[in-house]
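Record type: ASSEMBLY
Status: queued
Input:
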Amino acid sequence: MNRGVSSRLRRFLATPFARALLALLLMVGLGIAFNADGAFFRWSVHRDMLRQVSVYGILACGMTVVIVSAGIDLSVSSVLALSAVTFATLTLPMGWGATTAILAVLAAGAALGSLSGFLVARMRIQPFIVTLAMMVFARGLAKVVSGGKKVTNYVLAPDGSSQVVDLPRVFELIDSRVLGGNLSIVTVVFLACVALTWVVLERLRVGRHIYAVGGNAEAARLSGVPVGRTLVAAYALSGLFAAVAGICQAAQETQGDPETGMGYELDAIAMVVIGGTPLTGGKGSVTLTLVGVLTIGYLQKILSLNAAPEATRLMLTGVIIVCAVLFQRGRK
Amino acid sequence: MPNRPVLILGLTLALASCVGDGGRGHAGTPDDPFVIGMSQANLGEPWRVQMDADVRAAAEAHANLRVIFKDAQNNSLTQRAQVEELVEQGVDLIIISPKEAAPLTGPVAAAYRAGIPVIVLDREVQGDEYTTFIGADNVRIGREAGRWIREALGGKGKIVELKGLMTSTPGQDRNQGFLEGLDPAANPGLEVVFSGEMEWLEPNARTEMESALATHDPIDVVYAHNDPGAHGAWLAARAAGREEEMLFVGIDALPHEGQQYVAQGILDATFLYPTGGAEAIDLALRILAGEQVPKRITLGTRIFTAENVARGGDPIE
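Status: finished
Output:
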């Protein structure tokens, strides 16, 4: 009996999930040790950490799907910016309703993702190249849509006059909190994205196909998996999540900034990898990514709470990424 | 049916007038306006977009000026090529806001030696082979912000400083000037209780401010090195229900950004970091008229608060 429990525990501790969890716990321990005069023990600090990490986390959900398919999506940060300016442009100067604007932005994000997927699957261009091109293209498009300026509630009329319009309620709604002010809406959105990704990867046939294609595309093809469609679906999902993240970013910034989100794709990749999903594809899960997101989130929060200098933060983040990955690999 | 040889001849002439130095030495009349080449380091930053807009607005007031705008997209070598192109095109004067000093010193000097006056805006080049430099003084602007905060607090209070990229000169200068103006040594009641680096970015400022709010209560003033930073801090304070507790002070005061934030009651003060665009056109006209101009012009700043923002702020000389 006792031995059964301990061997089951040992088996659990050898899983990637347990290792990821352990890294997260170590990080929380670090927070307890460096608690910035007790600030770390207040829920509001954790709530703010969750808010702050949510946009990255949403990107990381899509990134997980693409990485499991043995690809990479560098374009998420630019699609985020494009979505943010499109959302702001549709709702502010153009005065669209929130629902139509959100649906339009989500459709655009999924369409750009599908285009990347199409180029990867049908044109046989490497994912790195395709999404690098998409990253540059979408950033340019964001500048075109916004006219190179931040889109704010300070609106220029066609006759050249300007006025301040009320920020649509949807901005405040997304940037508000629920559960008595204890959880940000963007965090709820993030958790919903995690849940959706989990369903897609673990419960739907397309999810099984994504694992199969990521593990060995040729073997998958021979066993009748529609490789092309599967890849398009993976990148479309990533584009969709990037659009969700863009809407959240715009709401939190109360504007659409064509320069926003620069470099977020690397944070998202780091979160996936720290969680324990290997870049080689075919393995991993979104629950691992969730743990990875929290690990990075706590690291950033602890450094920020203690007002660590920027240089220290960068070096520590680098060291911790390597440590976390080594830790993951510790035992097969 | 147009006469084809005439058309070709016309096109050739039109082309010829665009290339080579056939155009050098325009008369400066509405029929033959002076041509000014404006080389901008990049149009990714709103402040630089504003600089081009200021140049354009100032030039449009003069029928005898035409400005060619170039965007170097934050690439020094692109900008170098653009300066060389402008020389080739035979412009009458060059305005350049260089990306960085070293790679652009040579091209600017070459244009200057070729007899084309060069106005250098905002960032400097090395040596003295240019006509005149126009720039603002970040230390001075930071000092004014520090002084304003000291006076607003009456010499006592807790301050949060959200710094720009501290490896950049504007970040260092806005920090140094601020501490000089605040003068905490002579005012022991003033204390910078939290200092975070937000790298000019609004989302980062919000994150840093959340940390400041979690560790310090109360906070009396937030001083951010740019207006988006101050706005991000305000968003964080509002989310915590504490935005009324403190003053928010920013820098840059772009018309569509900082000035709007002040008009909307989000920021309590912002200090203009002037683009020098209008001044450059003024100076260009004087140079083209053969006047001698000073080698170096340092621009003053303006303060915008709720009471003066409608009338365009007040100058601080």
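Annotation: The first strand of chain B starts at residue 34 and ends at 40.
Annotation: Chain B has two domains: 12-130, 138-274+306-316.
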